Amino acid sequence: MLLNVLRNVVDNLLANSSIRSVNIGLNDVEVVKDVSAIDKPKELEKPSKVFITGSADASSVTIKVVGNEVALACGVVSGFNILVYPEVSKSLLEVPFIGVLVGDEYPGITNKYVMLGIKYVEDLYLPNDALAHDIRISIESLMIEKALHHLPQNSLLIVDGPIYYLTHQPNINSLWNEELVRLNEYRVDKLRRLYRYNSILPVNVVKRVRNSYYITSTISKNITDLEYVERLVNELGSGSRPFRTSLYECSLSVGPKRYFTYVVIPRSRIYSSYSIFRVELLKEVYDDLPYELIDSIVSYIAYEAWGYGLSLPYKLYIADTYSKRLVHSMSDMLMKLIISKKVLIPYEVLENV
Known about the structure:
Blueprint: H1 2-15, E1 35-37, E2 42-43, E3 53-65, E4 68-78, E5 82-85, E6 98-100, E7 109-110, H2 130-146, E8 156-160, H3 175-196, E9 201-206, H4 225-236, E10 243-244, E11 248-250, E12 258-268, E13 273-282, H5 283-288, H6 291-306, H7 314-340, H8 347-351
Parallel strand pairs: 3-8, 6-7, 8-9
Antiparallel strand pairs: 1-11, 2-10, 3-4, 4-5, 4-6, 9-13, 10-12, 11-12, 12-13
């Protein structure tokens, strides 16, 4: 099934190679700052409570050929076992996992915004990598839904990425802005249903915050969140155990009210190295749970990373690694098909093959 889908992609590329997108970065973010601290920074104690955890993640990659663009994505749920989308052995495709800028639609392949149903090529201000973000965020929501059947009640589902993506470009008249709002609304609805109707606690984790599109200056007006956390590390030291910043209540002009904190994981006492990730909770989750339980959840996630010598929680590490390997395997397969069909490829793309 997968090979047939990829062959359809290559046929699209052969037939369509003349239209280009406008290059606009996706990380130009404007956010209204409305944040208040609930407590103070603290070193995290080893949690006494044990949680059953799972994770949902998706990865994407973009391949650009002359006059066209392809985005591939795949999703993974890591729980008691591994669930993958798309499944090679199944022909049923619930959402697209491949986006093409120009070309025809086939099962699993779309040339349109997933939520709006408008062709990518009709967006005159289509941002760079919008296809990949569109496909990946859609698959992430699907994996959140699929996690219901793979985790028991009262377990934690660690979801990759923020609760609400903030890559808006208010000064650019791009359809991507409206598409992202729809994707976010659908994503938040899935997270809420996960909690309300299935008693699974969704915990969002933004990993690798140094390179993230989705971390904005919400704590301080004068410095970025990352700079704030790094100054805090300099003051307190990276220590021998994980610690977190204050827990913050966040009421931005877009998205639901939520709570967040940054977790610092010591990596090496010799070199004083550390990693940082951000933990987010929906307001309704925070309101329903005792503060002590929230603290235990954050501690458990932190120690799940630190205990394995990882920069992110263990189950999320599995899902992240698995999804990246899958999407790169798909892209390698697609590139070989593209080269065999003699589709024109920029030299920079070939360098990365």
